[in-house]
Amino acid sequence: MLAAPSKNAHLLIVDDDHPTRMLLRGVLGRQGYQISEAANGLEALQRIAEQRPDLVLLDVMMPELDGYGTCARIREQDADDNLPIIMLTGAEDIAAIDLAFNAGATDFITKPINWPLLTQRVRYALRTGALNRQVRENRMREASVRRIAGLGFWGWDLSTGELQWSQELLTLTGIAPAAVASVASLTARLHPDDRPRLLQAFEMAQAVGARIELELRLQTDSPAIQPAERIVHLIGERGQQGQEAERVYGAFQDVTASRQTAALVDFLALHDELTGLGNRRLFLQQVNRALQQAHSNATPVTALVGCIDLVRFKRFNDSMGNSNADKLLTLLAQRLRVYATGGSEVARIGGDEFAVLLLAPSEADAEARFQHLVDALALPFKVDAHEVFITCSAGVALHPQHGSNAEQLLQQAQEAQRLARSQGRSWMTASLDAEDAGRMRAALELERALRRALDNDQFFLVYQPQMDLTHGKIVGVEALLRWRHPVHGVVPPVRFIPLLEDLGLINPVGEWVLREACQQAARWVAQGLPLRVGVNLSPRQFLDPHLFDIVLDAAQQAQVAPGLIELEITESLAIQDLDHSIQLLRRFRDAGFKVAVDDFGIGYSSLEYLLRFPLDVIKIDRAFITDITATQADRAIVRAVTVMGQSLGLQVIAEGVETQRQCDFLEALGVSEVQGYLIGKPMPADELEQLARSFTRPH
Ligand code: C2E
Ligand code: CA
Ligand code: CA
């Protein structure tokens, strides 16, 4: 649980308008916060450096350094992004909000100020403290969802041959819908190599109702759109029956920019430009992957995470100039790479901070190798014909002793490094104080118990109902895993599923869940209740080459129709081997299983994801539902997703519906099903059966 906010937290109010500052001080001061003020951006930066406030309220419109600029500067100073910054924007203006988040704001509130909301947001921002980054990420995701509305739709009337396009065609590609109202006029604009594919796909759609999925190069004649050759992703499907079947419905997306930059962005997002080493993010991934592999090894492996910090590197910048200092960093990176051999990784995790991962058969061995590496750094570097010596302080954390995952290990290593520096030592290994040791022991115990949980029959499933909004009936359920720990009682999945994944146990447990859920589905059918059962699949299960056979076998053994089994996948699947995942999903759907995308929230890849992944259902993340009655932006997002879902022939389920009012909104927005405490909490199968039989829609 999050700690309650400290009542006398210190807030800094930054606004050039004196009356506004007075008002803010009055309202927030009365709630017990300690307040200080700054009348402009530069003053704010100074106050922050001096007073270290707990939260900043920052006006956007200020002369000279405006709010965005100030925010960006604060973030430069505060590398951890820990300081919550709430921006006061002028209007409910999406561009302003995006700018605020891009500059690093935690949250925003619009002027004129809604006082109760402000108080709430301040409290929330303070409470989430270190979680701020996550909040911001969520908001960024929301911002990207808004951009979804820029996705276009198209249709093809098979009886008249007419092609219809939504207005986005013009805004995205510069081509007027009327200019491509027939297959012939569309073909004329295509790159000659793409024409046969288009004609064939359209022919197949018309003849046998095949799904259309194409990536085409289209020529625009609008000088405002660059480059003139647009890459457009086009998908479409024939309607199901009757008149509907006389039409193809689809969506399109201009992917020109992402095709060109995707590869570059991926690389830049994970690498340091100067040294070419991986960055912190990549390093954490690499360590976690190595730990997983180590677990599946027969012989034990010690993993050593070392963090190396250059002592007073800034003086090199001052004395040799920036470009020579950069050269020094590059040489250092090279040397680290040379000395860290054999399954090791090296990364640059900060300006003058590097990290290494070493794998060795024993602790002593790992530490000896690290010592070797530290010794190597003591040798001189040759920069511009000068010999340069560096001093570093380093810290080391070992797996399993000091942590079970990359984040923990790196943190321990960094702490050890700070300690080493303060004691003037070249490096130290993390040590555990009594409390840490206790926690670590508890974690190890949990791990040990979890390893035996499957054999000891300690897992069970609960089922959460899903109501169809058209008929007000329970039509499906989501199966949710629980662990009955012999001492701690029932453990919620957030506490043990990540651990199962770390330990490489998610596959056998996931298989158990599948079999159990299929059997329950069959029992309900036998009782005259053909409920659809959703099963969560972890992305790691997709790496199992037997997954398809396991799912198929589970359904066959239970003698349940695949149409009653809905596989819930998450967006993060798109990060894995996309083609493999798509192919596998297609096999599932061909075999009759339903596929749902869970926690739909739109990351960087989600648009693509929707277009490329064969899906039946979108489950909108609870984050968008919680405030739906109050927040226009959330409604716009849900509306965009439902419109898109409908045009792609997908069902849309809203998750986390707790109140009747949320439910009313969702119904009005065109959502097809709702799941949440309003309908029912996750419950044992027999309770669910009773609920489904006696269910009447809540009012
Ligand atoms: P999820 O798939 O998003 O599941 C929905 C979660 O939201 C469930 O938490 C459910 O109890 C909770 N929830 C449902 N309605 C409401 C509501 O109205 N308000 C609030 N506040 N919460 C609501 P739970 O059961 O703790 O599961 C957490 C997560 O654990 C799941 O999130 C899923 O990602 C994972 N999980 C659960 N079972 C399995 C499993 O068998 N396999 C895998 N791989 N993951 C699982
Ligand atoms: Ca789920
Ligand atoms: Ca979910």
* Count of DSSP strands: 26
Strand residue percentage: 15-25%
Mean pLDDT: 85
**Helicity level:** 40-55%
- In the CATH hierarchy, the architecture of the largest domain is Alpha-Beta Barrel
Distance between the termini: 32 Å
Class inferred from helices and paired strands: alpha/beta
- Number of individual domains: 4
CATH class of the largest domain: Alpha Beta
The CATH homologous superfamily name of the largest domain equals EAL domain
Gross geometry = globular
CATH topology term of the largest domain: TIM Barrel
Supply Rg.
29 Å
Describe the structure.
The chain is an alpha/beta fold and 699 residues long. Helix content is 45%, strand content 22%. The chain has 25 helices and 26 strands. An eight-stranded mixed β-barrel has the order 18-19-21-22-23-24-25-26, surrounded by six helices. A hairpin with a 5-residue loop joins strand 6 (152-157) and strand 7 (163-165). Helix 12 crosses helix 13 and helix 13 (322-339) packs antiparallel against helix 14. The protein is globular, with a radius of gyration of 29 Å. It starts with 9 loop residues before the first strand and ends in a 5-residue tail after the last helix. The model is unreliable at 1-5 and 142-147 (pLDDT under 50). The structure holds ligand C2E and calcium ion (2 copies). One calcium ion is lined by residues 598-599, 619, 655.
